[in-house]
Amino acid sequence: MTMTSGREMLVDGEFPFTQADFRHIASALHSHAGIALHEGKAALVYSRLAKRLRALGLRNFAEYVELVESPEGREERQAMTAALTTNVTRFYREPHHFDHLRDVMMPKLAARARAGGRVRLWSAACSNGQEPYSMALTVLEKLPEALDLDVRILATDIDPNMVAEGRLGIYSDDLLAPVPASGRRRFTPLSDRPGYSQADETLRRLVVFNELNLIGNWPMKGTFDVIFCRNVVIYFDDATQEKVWARFAPILNPGGALYIGHSERVSGPAADQFQTCGLTTYLRTDARSRDAA
Asked: Which of 89, 129, 218, 232 has the fewest Cβ atoms nearer than 10 Å?
């Protein structure tokens, strides 16, 4: 077996970047966010983090590693995670999920809400808010009075910058292009920012944005009827994926819907608690029906 010292250069640039540097950064990212990096991503890691070294006035990656691994490095660990994650999102991305939400889930959820019941939906990796606002628009199609009832959408993301953007709810006309005309009426053009519009008060009050790490503590006490967690766990290793699915199962009500990304599948022991009902769409099974099977 050929042993390596970790001093081999992966990238020869402004800041020397060794195998040891990469391993430390990959380990820190996995510990903080559950994201698994392989060495083939070395050039991407270098290009994105070199900007952080310049901003921090550091001389090399060894100093950066020392910072992110230190107790004082919490903010930089967040900045590192934000730099190394890709926030690809758009309104009504994978539209079949919103069709299912509107046509299958919302009739029964609307009836429950109108009878005084509680309805909760969760966008578990909300990026800059386009997914949860798409959820809100879908809810309002079937339940225009949702804000006056016990209906709320939780939107969470590990990146505080994305959470802040979501709270503002300001998007360019290009980003709003997939929103149908009926939904566009809920976005108000900004006089001081031509070409941009802001989600109206109903949308912004219906969606509650908070920072949350999917492999960290989940402070929510109640359960959900709908969970969107799409194109996130593909960045986790198999064991971490299985842990996330297992955490979703007990907080999703029986009959509740879980929508995942097109390259993802519910795996591990939790898979027995879900049944597929369409493309990347799962329903939480009732424990009594599982026991009877």
From this structure: 218
